Amino acid sequence: xxxxxxxxxxxxxxxxxxxxxxxxxxxxxxxxxxxxxxxxxxxxxxxxxxxxxxxxxxxxxxxxxxxxxxxxxxxxxxxxxxxxxxxxxxxxxxxxxxxxxxxxxxxxxxxxxxxxxxxxxxxxxxxxxxxxxxxxxxxxxxxxxxxxxxxxxxxxxxxxxxxxxxxxxxxxxxxxxxxxxxxxxxxxxxxxxxxxxxxxxxxxxxxxxxxxxxxxxxxxxxxxxxxxxxxxxxxxxxxxxxxxxxxxxxxxxxxxxxxxxxxxxxxxxxxxxxxxxxxxxxxxxxxxx
Length: 289
Prior knowledge:
Elements: H1 8-23, H2 28-35, H3 39-46, H4 54-63, H5 69-82, H6 95-106, E1 109-114, H7 125-136, H8 143-163, E2 170-176, H9 177-181, H10 187-201, E3 206-211, E4 225-229, E5 238-242, E6 247-250, H11 253-267, H12 275-288
Parallel strand pairs: 1-2, 2-3
Antiparallel strand pairs: 1-4, 4-5, 5-6
Helix pairs in contact: 1-5, 2-3, 4-5, 7-8, 10-12
């Protein structure tokens, strides 16, 4: 079911797409001149780089010949929704990461493949501190580590809140078995993390697939990624790739389609739905040794 009240990221994306469609073959320079805008402003609006005020949306829509009151209200409402001030706008993140958090807030299906550590949305606080401290090569009490973990926990809280709402998102995770066998933070922290994975898997709308080491090669070996899809429009998929040096947000439909296919193949490795139970049993046994 589609949420009739989209969040700011999907509202901006939908509005940008609609405005590009309305312009059709009209020269962008001519439209910008008619609106008394710079060409760069129109380009940024159509590319979803900036928001557009409701009064500007109405003026632009009327310039394009939109006369239907219902359609005008829909476009104006998208503008209003796109300008909501959310918590992540007050943080000092890279643009791609900020946009990813915004899209995650609106996604109808959240996918993640991880080969090195537990996906961010499934981490306990203790595990998050341990893995972030290692990745950043800083002590767990370091301010940068705390900031990263705080944001990660806010992302979890946002998703869990949506799962309790009227339009809960679907969550699908594919995790390499090695992730569960690596005792991040020590045995006690890892044992609690394994229990948390088991608890999360019991929730509606959550699916966790573990790729056994004996599986050998699989399409996820190209690297970890997160994929977001949206019930409002299949062309709005986004992929987020995180590295120690920089992050990347992919929005091109050909690029995102590749990752959607990879995710489908990874999830299909567990048709019986018992891979997590088997992997957790083995991981807990390894901790006791």
